[in-house]
Amino acid sequence: MEKNNNKIAFQTEIDISLANALRRSVMEIPVLAIDEVEIYKNDSALYDEVIAHRIGLVPLKMDKTMNEKTEFELKLVKTGPGFVYSGELKGKEEVVYDNMPITLLEDGKEIELVAFAKIGQGIKHTKFTPGIANYTEENGEIQFSIESFGQMSAEKILEEAAEVIKKNLSELKQ
Fold it and tell me: What is the per-residue pLDDT for 68?
């Protein structure tokens, strides 16, 4: 029905229980996300908790060489005036979208922080979710849709979710 890097939508005649298992398996795909934020200076009008929350929503690019034992660090130092954007988080990792606004700094106001990212799964916390999967049933067919948050393509999310199902069934079989 539709296919591009950020969205895939298709019709299929699979059982509804398999469609639901596929939807739920998206939450088990490992994803890199900001887990903790240490704020050293925040002269903005927003509370530290709001800044940390906004930074936690910034999707980070995944690399196949990354593993779950590694913690990654991104730094942000800026003096106003002007908006602070996600692209100003600097480190070895890259943000998916550079222009996500975090806060506004007035003239002479500063922000300084370090964000720590790690790989996790959405079943532990939704910040580790690579996208949204949903389905509807119409006339005996399932219409399935996946929208990516940008860490990986929607097609890759579908492939990874299918691999999660295979792995879980293999573990169940043992």
Answer: 77
